[in-house]
Amino acid sequence: MTPTTDEPDLNIVHLRGRVTSLDEPRSLPSGDVVHGLRVTVTRALRPGASRAAADTVDVACWSPATRRVAGRLVVGERVEVDGAIRRRFFRAGAAPVSRYEVEASRVRRLPPARPRPVRSGEARGAGSP
């Protein structure tokens, strides 16, 4: 379908996944402070695949509210992130670098995932009877 001129552009991200790393808040030369984290999100299982793949997404928290939540997170915790994709340009040494990341407008903790019940006849994890 070809978009018409009446359809606005859209850049909305909604992630739900597990925190896999947390950065310390950084003060930038501009005076802004950013708190970064990584969220791993499992993809839907593809037909014929034996297991689902996962994507690791960098998230930047710029606002005081998102930095506050990010500062209280721990690795392994489940989170939900709303925001938009941004391409950020910066220097690493003398070289210019760019990176895509989600700029969070909202971050919230999710309750821990409930364990999936083991069905009769299914293999159990190591150490289980």
Short description:
The chain has 129 residues and is mainly beta. It is 7% helix and 47% strand. It has a domain at 13-41 and 53-109: Nucleic acid-binding proteins (OB fold (Dihydrolipoamide Acetyltransferase, E2P)), CATH 2.40.50.140.
Task: Summarize the helices and strands and which ones pair or pack.
Elements: E1 13-22, E2 26-27, E3 33-42, E4 54-61, H1 64-72, E5 78-92, E6 95-109
Parallel strand pairs: 4-6
Antiparallel strand pairs: 1-3, 1-5, 2-3, 3-4, 5-6
Report on the architecture of this protein.
With 129 residues, this protein is mainly beta. The protein has a domain at 13-41 and 53-109: Beta Barrel (OB fold (Dihydrolipoamide Acetyltransferase, E2P)), CATH 2.40.50. It has one helix at residues 64-72, and strands at 13-22, 26-27, 33-42, 54-61, 78-92, 95-109. It has a five-stranded mixed barrel. The longest helix has 9 residues, at 64-72. 12% of the residues are buried.
Helical percent range?
Answer: under 10%
Looking at the structure, the CATH topology of one domain is OB fold (Dihydrolipoamide Acetyltransferase, E2P)
What is the strand arrangement across the widest sheet? Answer: 1-3-4-6-5
CATH superfamily of one domain: Nucleic acid-binding proteins
Approximate strand percentage: over 45%
Oligomer: single chain
**Series of secondary-structure elements, N-terminal to C-terminal:** EEEEHEE
As residue ranges, the low-confidence spans are none
DSSP summary, beta strand count: 6
Tell me, what is the CATH class of one domain? Answer: Mainly Beta
The total of helices stands at 1
Shape estimate: globular
The overall average pLDDT, rounded, is 88
Q: Tell me about the biggest sheet?
A: 5 strands, mixed, barrel
End-to-end distance, in Å? 54 Å
Q: Round the Cα radius of gyration to an integer and report it.
A: 19 Å
Tell me which CATH architecture of one domain applies here. Beta Barrel
